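Purpose: get a first structural picture of the assembly so the mutagenesis plan has something to point at.
Setup: two entries, given in the order below. No constraints added.
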Amino acid sequence: MVPPMTDLGKQLFARNKPIGKFSPGGTNDPHTRYCDPFGFPQNMTQEIRGMTITTLPTRTFLLLQYMDLWREIWTDGRTLPTNVGGRGREAHDPKYNGYSIGRWEDDYTFVVDTTGLAPETWATKSGYPHSVDAHVVERFHRSSKHDLSLNITMTDPKLYTQPFFLGEVYFRWVPNQQIDDFTCIPSEQVLYLKEMGDPAGSDPDAATQGGRGGRP
Amino acid sequence: MKTKLLMMVMLLAGLAAADRPSFAHHGAAAFDMTKPVVLKNATVTEFLWINPHPLIKADYKDEKGQVQHWTMEMGSTVSAQLIGWTRTTLNYGDVVTLYVWQAKTKVPVGRFNKVEFSDGTVMRDTQTGADDGGRADTDVRQ
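Result (structure tokens, whole complex):
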């Protein structure tokens, strides 16, 4: 359920043309057109395919099959940066995956807090935006030996008036599975759009999220 | 102990996102999904095993003898592999019958539905391969 948006949230949302309505030929989704990174949190609800989790004493890593992506989650007790994208020497730059810290809530639940997201990326495939200061909470819960669920909620008061539940992802452990290549390759994407996506065009009847007509 | 719980496990994702689309990668809004176009005895000119979607290119001679150059997209390489596709399933020069959901713009491009080979075997698309345009990797077995 999408929460009410602020005026700024509405403005940012209205300029995005998601692939579901506009098809590859009519979307302005930077991933679809250019293979730009999804960024977090979209990369935890989109594609993913296979995921490997591995740990070091002070960090947990998530390794995603789609886009050969890895995320770094610190577990050494540090706090999240508070001045991402700001001015001054102490300010951090925004990052596609933001800055993440993790803690164990109980033996089967790992909670990850993330902020400092690259603001040009979309929070969801449907074009919902996020700001650099969005705070995303992920709850990884291992419900059985082979089952893991992930709940994702984003709080971003600049753009939304209430927390935004982004979805629940279910993972099934397949022992000894070998992961194949699956990544967006710009040269192949150019070929795909030239041969297929652009000639197919956009759905002439699709409405934009602002209620305007869908013709580009 | 806690870290061992999740150490080096590899998992496959299933998704129930709040704004989940009907197809995994992109929607079929650009295509007419009511009835597939049948390209009987089309000649494969190229099979591009690429991401995000493999492309089948084929020449089809219509009833007037005019050759149409078609391009159609499949699901994804990784999902097609799970129902038996490889990068050599189709080859240059193969004469096959192709079923395709054509673009609403009526240009000769579309979403692949299924292929019938000369020996009668059928290979389907994962996402739009069923005869009603639905998923073939879950509800059709051939």
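The beta strands of chain B are 9-17, 37-48, 55-61, 67-73, 95-102, 109-116, 122-124.
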